[in-house]
Amino acid sequence: MTSIEPARKRIRRLAGALRSCTAKSITAGLGTRRFVRDRSGNATMLVAFAMPMVIGGGGMAIDFGQYYLWKRELQYANDQAAIAAAWEVLDSGSTAKMTDRAKNAFAVNEQITADFNTDPSVQLANYAGGVGNSVIVTSSATKRLPFTSFFTKNATTVSVSSQAAFTGGATISSCMIAVDEHSGGAVTIGGNAVFTAQCGIAALSDSSKSCTGGYDSGGTCLGWTGEDAITDNGNSYEIKAGSIATAGTVSDTLAAKAQANGDTVIEHATNLADPFAGIEPPSSEGVGPGTYICKATGKKTQATIDAFNAGKADSDKLVLGVAYPGVYDGGLSLGCDTTFKGGVYFIRGGTLTINGNHTVQSEAGVMFVLENGANFKINGGADINLSGMDEGALQDLGYTAEEAHKINTMLIFETADNAASHGNTLNGNSNTFLNGALYTKNNILDLSGTADVANACLLLVASKVNLTGTLNMTKWCKDPPNHPTTIIYGSVSLVA
Questions:
Q1: How far apart are CA 355 and CA 381, in angstroms?
Q2: Among 228, 295, 418, 482, which has the highest number of CB atoms less than 10 A from its own CB?
Q3: Among positive and negative, which fits the CA dihedral 100, 102, 105, 108?
């Protein structure tokens, strides 16, 4: 028993030790698996891995914010400098003052970049086909950004550029106005036309021609787009208009020739207007037919004898005609020396024709109203002396004092719904005296052939105006009462 008992104890101790080892092994296996499955440290690892990107992104964001803050302030100051410089050119025409004013405006409008920017560069430049009609200002600022400079070891430069275009101001008076608002060639001069009346030409058209293809080394445009509102055809004409203004552009050759003769040329004008807009001609409703009679007098003059001998007249007797106000259906064509009685002549369709070698005069103020597609042709070969209705006569027709003042001496008045026809023609000679306004808003006015109109107090307002052939308009009456005066304000606009 004594020997057996110790052996049992040893066996029990071994079994206990075995159980203990087995339990520890099992516990260790379970701990390893729990460690593998445990995710409580993932956030720390992700933060550790992402921290360089977070810090880098934050640094880049701060640098970009700083960069755009510099650029925004620098661009604003630069824009103000360009605008100020353009106004200085308009005011004084001095490039030296232009630069000083630009620098002053630049300094006043920037603060953050004041310690590390450069002085702005200021220069005149061409814009939209014009010459020296804009100012370009460039500037820059250079400084190290806190984050990116750590890697680049260099400072960052912010550069900006601004361009301000300008047009000059003037007070102009116009005797020839094209009211088409968008067409190119609203006023065209060509052939051997001479227009030296110095009474002013205006076009409401905003049609513009600009160089969009860039310039070669010699300054020649490589590609044009659009069409000038006031243009020319050929280079044999003579121009001295006094002023040429348009809401669009003027052809370079015409502008150069006009400016060489002392004319003021204004492009992109914003306040040109139709002087008769909103006013309608008298109505023909209830008006009876007009009467026109040519009657032989039995008298002879040397002129009638010469005309008969030359085969230009059917008789050597003096034939006189009288026209009375009223409606003329299908037009009115003069066949003899004619006197128009004062009043309103409604030309309902057809053509008002005044031509040949007839002497034509108005006994008092007259007005020709064109309706139903009517047009006119005045081809004076002898004496023509016609005057429009004065303010008193116009008020008798029912116009207010203000309206009568605006259309004072209206000679030819087209209705608003008068369809575009074959256009209107005015060809006179040195004995052609037309005193008043010709208003054909819907139709073209051709001043061509051998027209030679002198000493007139004319105001020509049409859809478009063509000056061609051997037109010769050299003199207008002094201080005409009906020519509109327009104040063209100088303007500056930021274009780039």
A1: 7
A2: 228
A3: negative
Q: Considering only CA atoms, which of 379, 375, 401 is closest in space to residue 390?
A: 401
Classify each residue of 291-310 as buried b or exposed e, where b means 16 or more C-beta atoms within 10 Å of its C-beta.
Answer: ebeeeeeeeeeeebeebeee
Identify whether the C-beta of residue 475 lies closer than 8 Å to the C-beta of residue 199. no
- Return phi, psi of residue 144, to 5°: -75, 135
Q: Supply the pLDDT for residue 80.
A: 94
- Tell me the pLDDT tens digit for each residue of 409-456: 999 999 998 887 778 998 876 677 888 899 999 999 998 765 555 556
Decide if 122 contacts 102 (C-beta within 8 A).
Answer: yes
Mean pLDDT rounded to a whole number for the chain:
83
What pTM did the predictor assign?
0.67
Q: Assess if residue 416 is contained within a domain.
A: no
Tell me whether residue 304 is in a domain.
Answer: no
Place of tokens 């250079």: 142
* Burial of 214 (C-beta count, 10 Å sphere; 0-12/13-18/19+): exposed
**Residue 280: which residues within 8 A CB-CB, separation 6 or more?**
415, 416
Structure tokens at 467: 């000056």
Contacts 24+ apart (CB under 8 A), 111-120: 111/73, 112/69, 112/70, 112/73, 113/70, 113/73, 113/74, 113/77, 113/141, 113/158, 116/141, 116/142, 116/143, 117/74, 117/141, 118/142, 120/78, 120/81
- Report mean pLDDT in 10-residue bins for the chain, 496 residues: 60 63 53 60 68 65 79 92 90 82 92 87 84 89 77 83 83 89 95 87 94 79 90 91 92 93 88 92 95 79 61 65 95 91 96 85 94 89 84 96 93 90 78 86 84 67 91 71 68 84
In a domain, residue 106? The reply is yes
Q: Which amino acid does the sequence have at 210?
A: S
Please check whether residue 449 is in contact with residue 191, taking contact to mean a CB–CB distance below 8 angstroms. Answer: no
Structural domains of the chain, count? 1
Q: Which residues on neighbouring strands pair with residue 485, listed in sequence order?
A: 173
Note down the domain range covering 85: 45-167
What is the 8-class DSSP label of residue 131? S
Q: Cα 49 vs. chain centroid, distance in angstroms?
A: 62
Instruction: Judge whether 145 lies within some domain.
Output: yes
